[in-house]
Design a protein that fits this description.
single chain, 3-stranded antiparallel sheet, 234 residues, 7-stranded parallel sheet, globular, alpha/beta, 7 helices, 10 strands
């Protein structure tokens, strides 16, 4: 991945493989099965599956599919990729939606971002210390503006490479806590889950590894994109 100050135009790196599904519902089913496969492999090799989960609407459908089938919640540690700075129980919090969709046994090993702490800089450092050296899998979404996690266009957080967790300025009404590029780059695998016609241009630029959008700075190696036909123009 290009460090700050490097070439931020289009890269010659190969695009991540992309699987296209007919609908957002079909994407959710496919993503759930891939997550199960990663969980089985990680548990077989290391005894635990460490999974970084993003917010947004699409992941809740994926988690609903995981809940419908067999999943090793007792051997899965969930870490938040990003979170809005908002009160406990707020509908704006990703954690609120996780609590609504996941079974109680999943929460034994959920690690929420401490966004209610009075000292958010210290809280970000504490959360960084909780992260494993390499997450087994990170789920990433994509915004129409090209953001992923809470790596937001034009925000100084894009240039944070010396911390694993950082704070952003206000975005869509809330500042946020987010993992940074180094955490994403160290993950054993990345799963992009992208749905909706409003993602068409951002997905095109992601697949081109276009460094002018935040998502395009993520190296394509070890990544898989799952998208619906609307997002790919199919």
């Amino acid at each position: 991945m290009t460090a700050p100050g490097g070439d931020r135009g289009r890269s010659e790196e190969v695009s991540p493989p992309t699987e296209v599904f007919s609908s957002a519902a079909a994407v959710a089913v496919g993503a759930a099965e891939i997550i199960r496969e990663h969980a089985r492999a990680a548990i077989a090799e290391r005894g635990m599956f460490t999974f970084g989960v993003s917010g947004g609407l699409t992941p809740w459908a994926v988690f609903a599919e995981l809940v419908r089938g067999d999943f090793p919640w007792g051997q899965t540690a969930l870490y938040q990729v990003d979170e809005r700075i908002a009160a406990a129980g707020s509908e704006e919090r990703n954690l609120t939606h996780l609590r609504a969709v996941l079974p109680s046994e999943a929460f034994v090993r959920v690690h929420p971002m401490p966004v209610e702490a009075p000292d958010l800089d210290a809280a970000a450092s504490r959360y960084a210390a909780l992260l494993p050296e390499r997450l087994d899998l990170i789920h990433l979404g994509l915004g129409p503006d090209g953001h992923t996690a809470s790596l937001i266009p034009g925000d100084p957080v894009l240039d944070v490479y010396n911390r694993n967790v950082a704070l952003t300025g206000p975005y869509q009404g809330r500042p946020r806590m987010t993992i940074t590029y180094p955490v994403i780059e160290r993950a054993r695998a990345l799963l992009w889950v992208i749905t909706g016609a409003d993602k068409l241009e951002a997905l095109r630029r992601l697949r081109a590894h276009d460094h002018t959008i935040p998502a395009g700075r993520v190296a394509p190696g070890r990544a898989l994109i799952l998208a619906d036909a609307a997002a790919t123009g199919g």
